Amino acid sequence: MKDFRNRVAAITGAGSGMGRALAVQLAQAGCHVAMCDRDEAGLAQTLADVRRVAPDVRATIACVDVADRAAVHAWADAVARDHGRVNLIFNNAGVALSSTVEGMGYDDLEWILGINFWGVVHGTKAFLPYLKASGEGHVVNTSSVFGLFAQPGMGAYNASKYAVRGFTESLRQELDLMQCGVSATTVHPGGIKTNIARSSRVSPSVNGLLVRDAQQGREEFEKFFITSADKAARVILAGVRANKRRVLIGPDAYAADAMARLLPAAYQSLVVREARRKRKQLVPDAAAAPARTGDAA
Ligand SMILES: NC(=O)c1ccc[n+]([C@@H]2O[C@H](COP(=O)([O-])OP(=O)(O)OC[C@H]3O[C@@H](n4cnc5c(N)ncnc54)[C@H](O)[C@@H]3O)[C@@H](O)[C@H]2O)c1
């Protein structure tokens, strides 16, 4: 899709971060926007931002939990009814969890997969018929740099983001075969300055292994946030205009992609070595922890 003017875009997780930046930039480009989030105050702020920069576009909001299948399908029907058509769905809503696999409760695992994976599936399936009916559509699913490589303490997040990648790459190939006027892009942001660390869940299982405590874990997470949400949204929209299959955001995402390609299994030893080095700084008492892990690739 070369031009967003007079198209209709639906955006999940529009109440903060990249979702908000996407809504504002799409509206500035003359695109009508339908926004959802479970955070009503955040949504109201985004709506005000959109109205300020683009008073003439049609903008609607809905409080929707993307993990709720019926709610997402009802929202898609409402967007198509209220806006007359839908051209783009940005399945952007997401959350983070820091926990070892051993220390992970099934409730936390179900929570993160419900939002990060099932939320993307719900948004894709609910909007796809409308995108096809529009004659010119695009599905934009947000994975992560953690859909390209894995890290200790990120097993659930990794699982959700690798799943989004596989799901969306397969979808793109199906759409290419169908030649139905709809395309799909997978987005892999590196560290982006948003609220995601503040809203993340941190399990005590990472204390002493990776960080000192939850507060320090969130602070360390935020140190990797090097790209603004505005810049990220610009890169995503340029990727959609160019009909890219994969969009990487930030130099860290390019570095991670190169590492995963060059050392598809051996990169894990590098990550473990770096995690040990970091732990010595952050948790000096843990220096005596076991030095060997299963490095065999
Ligand atoms: N910030 C980063 O460094 C980074 C890196 C890679 C990928 N991502 C991904 O980018 C996407 C956007 O995140 P962000 O960084 O802008 O974070 P953010 O926390 O600023 O925004 C995420 C939004 O999603 C909403 N949300 C969470 N659960 C929801 C649910 N069940 N239903 C509806 N809305 C829900 C939140 O309320 C919030 O408004 C996420 O999928 C995230 O995993 C972020």
UniProtKB/TrEMBL annotation:
One of its GO terms (molecular function) is oxidoreductase activity. Keywords: Oxidoreductase. InterPro entries: KR_dom (IPR057326), NAD(P)-bd_dom_sf (IPR036291), Sc_DH/Rdtase_CS (IPR020904), SDR_fam (IPR002347). Residues 7-195 form the Ketoreductase domain. It comes from the Bacteria. PROSITE patterns: ADH_SHORT (PS00061). One of its GO terms (cellular component) is membrane. Pfam families: adh_short (PF00106). Belongs to the short-chain dehydrogenases/reductases (SDR) family. This is SDR family NAD(P)-dependent oxidoreductase. It comes from Cupriavidus pauculus.
